[in-house]
Design goal:
about 270 residues, 8-stranded mixed beta sheet, single chain, 13 strands
């Protein structure tokens, strides 16, 4: 378990890394006994620092929802992070050079809420509280090195959670759908980079149903006395592997009848 001083120190280091673009070393290497509860405590401290600069929370992201990603990090549960107003980009827009450190892109189904979801919610309650679902891209970044420069040890889940679940941005498509009218398990996407197909996947890759992902988030937040609010955007989790966004990359996600969304990197 980390002390209050260690939690604050970790959050301050992560905040500085975001401001300067200079990554820090693995928290898991510095604190071998670090727990998931510790990691969420660091995340909350980091979020408080961002809010103190005037940033506003616009929603949540859920990560590690696929079996493959959970196996890679040796966990059996997803993780979550917070979306801020400066993370929202319009589809087709240009990300300037230097905005992120090591950006990557994933395809997601976004839920936009029309009412609060207090406490653990059921599948039906999530659907009833959702105003619409939309195609989306999540932009990932890491303020923590992916590999320890000395030992080559990879990041652990406590590193990712502390780093706001590697969250960096969200791009919403313009299409809107009533979740009650569509089988989200069978919503698919083709993710292309510079016109070449990089990844394909189905919504079922997210815990077998993206709605279950939002249910999980309400359960996790309730354990910390938190909840989802009206107007929140919830990224339900990626159903493709993250794709590197090098300089000059142009991404397009084709969701078929569900819509499309794109983003460009200078």
């Amino acid at each position: 378990m980390l002390s209050a001083d260690q939690i604050e120190e970790a959050a301050e280091a992560l905040f500085a890394a975001e401001m300067t673009g200079q990554q820090i070393g693995l928290l898991s290497a510095r604190h071998s006994d670090m727990t998931i509860d510790d990691a969420y405590a660091v995340q909350r401290a980091l979020v408080a620092k961002r809010k103190a600069t005037g940033r506003e929370i616009i929603g949540w992201k859920i990560g590690l929802t696929s079996k493959a990603m959970q196996a890679a990090l040796r966990i059996d549960v997803p993780d979550s992070g917070i979306l801020f107003d400066d993370m929202a980009f319009e589809t087709g827009s240009l990300i300037p050079q230097g905005r992120f450190i090591e950006p990557r892109v994933e395809t997601e189904i976004a839920f936009i809420l029309k009412s609060d979801l207090d406490g653990p919610a059921t599948h039906a309650e999530v659907l009833a509280a959702t105003e619409f679902v939309a195609p989306a891209l999540e932009l990932l970044d890491t303020r923590i090195v992916r590999l320890d420069r000395t030992t080559s040890m990879p990041r652990k889940v406590v590193d990712t959670i502390s780093d706001n679940a590697a969250n960096a941005g969200i791009v919403l498509g313009t299409q809107r759908h009533d979740p009650a009218d569509i089988d989200l398990r069978h919503v698919g996407a083709v993710l292309m980079r510079n016109g070449e197909v990089e990844e394909t996947g189905l919504g079922a890759g997210v815990l077998n149903d993206p709605v279950k992902s939002v249910v999980w988030l309400t359960e996790r937040l309730s354990t910390y006395g938190m909840s989802l609010r009206r107007g929140d955007i919830v990224l339900s989790g990626s159903f493709v592997r993250p794709v590197e966004a090098h300089e000059g990359s142009k991404f397009e996600a084709d969701f078929g009848a569900f819509g499309n969304v794109s983003i460009n990197f200078a």
